[in-house]
Design brief:
Elements: E1 9-13, H1 17-29, E2 33-37, H2 40-49, E3 55-59, H3 67-76, E4 85-89, H4 94-103, E5 107-110, H5 115-151, H6 159-173, H7 178-190, H8 200-203, H9 211-218, H10 220-228, H11 238-243, H12 264-279, H13 290-302, H14 308-320
Helix pairs in contact: 2-3, 6-7, 6-12, 6-14, 12-13, 13-14
């Protein structure tokens, strides 16, 4: 029977039928919908086929894929990595707990499992899962808003996705931590979200902007930071949004930062942004070939605008990539 949308769903994975039955009964009597699996493989199938799983309870000792491997698999999959995982271990199995922590487990239960402890742990983790679901929903709204802004201009279609890809590629080439890579991917999507506060008459103006219009346009980076600031998961993204229009010589905006005072992640995204602007078609000119793009970017580095090391890194990525440059891709 399918669980009601408001009833939390708990997955119990254990190769022993009596353990599955006991845990299932305790949880169902406590108001949870329970799905059981007799192996790691079946547990992964259940997570794929049964919609949202709020908590997964995994026995350590299972044949084939044990609880540790199952936990690592759950935590490495973007679709399931936020599902809280409880590992069930022996009372004295300290090594199991260490291995469980390394695999990404969120909590532990000792055998024999005490019903009240089981209920309390699961209730706590269900609340945690609901908070992360709300966070993901907020991020989804921001991404949708950013894409709707981009869609208003046919010449920038796909721009945010390309910036996300280029920026993350630079981050990987520089061997940055994974959370920095994720921030670059997110930053590529939402970096211009503050343009929602800029009048369309200014955004889409075909000719030069007046000083007042330019001021309104330049306010978009700070506005974007304010829009995204409530999301704690965007801590590393906020400096990207605010500072991706700064220049090394201090002539950028909004704060006129100079040199390494500009956060590295913002400098990375601005290089991707400049490259994409030159390498794709615009109303006033055709897309430029790769050699011309990097010649211009080299001149701008010489003026003191961009980080030459980051430009060289992106050039290495573009020239070694098997994917075509934006100007070489067929138009949709």
């Amino acid at each position: 029977m399918k669980a009601h949308a408001t009833i939390p769903t708990v997955l119990v994975a254990d190769d022993m039928p009596e353990n599955r039955l006991l845990l299932g009964q305790i949880l169902e009597l406590s108001g949870f919908h329970v799905i059981t699996a007799e192996s790691g493989v079946r547990a992964l199938e259940a997570m794929t086929n049964n919609g949202v799983i709020d908590v997964a309870i995994l026995d350590v000792m299972m044949p084939g894929m044990d609880g540790f491997e199952l936990c690592r698999t759950i935590k490495s999959n973007p679709a399931t990595r936020l599902v809280p995982v409880v590992m069930v271990t022996g009372l004295s199995a300290s090594q199991d707990r260490i291995k469980g922590i390394e695999a990404g487990a969120d909590d532990f239960l000792s055998k024999p499992v005490h019903p009240e402890e089981l209920r309390a742990r699961v209730r706590s983790l269900v609340r945690l899962k609901h908070f992360t679901d709300e966070l993901e929903s907020a991020e989804t709204v921001l991404f949708a808003l950013a894409q709707s802004i981009e869609a208003k201009d046919p010449y920038t279609l796909g721009h945010c996705e390309r910036l996300s890809t280029y920026s993350a590629a630079i981050g990987r080439e520089l061997k940055l931590p994974e959370d920095h890579i994720v921030a670059l991917q997110r930053g590529g999507i939402v970096h211009d979200i503050g343009k929602v506060a800029v009048p369309e008459s200014v955004l889409n103006k075909p000719g030069p902007l007046t000083p007042e219009e330019r001021k309104r346009m330049e306010e978009h980076s700070a506005a974007g930071e304010r829009i995204c600031a409530p999301l704690k998961s965007f801590k590393l993204v906020l400096p990207i949004i605010r500072h991706h229009h700064e220049k090394l010589d201090g002539t950028g905006y909004p704060d006129g930062l100079r040199g390494e005072a500009i956060p590295l992640l913002a400098r990375i995204l601005q290089i991707a942004d400049v490259y994409d602007a030159l390498a794709t078609q615009r109303p006033y000119r055709a897309a430029l070939p790769t050699d011309e793009v990097f010649r211009i970017m080299g001149e701008e580095c010489a003026r003191g605008w961009w980080d030459p090391m980051l430009v060289a890194t992106l050039e290495k990525i573009i020239r070694s990539s098997t994917n075509p440059s934006p100007q070489d891709q067929p138009s949709s």
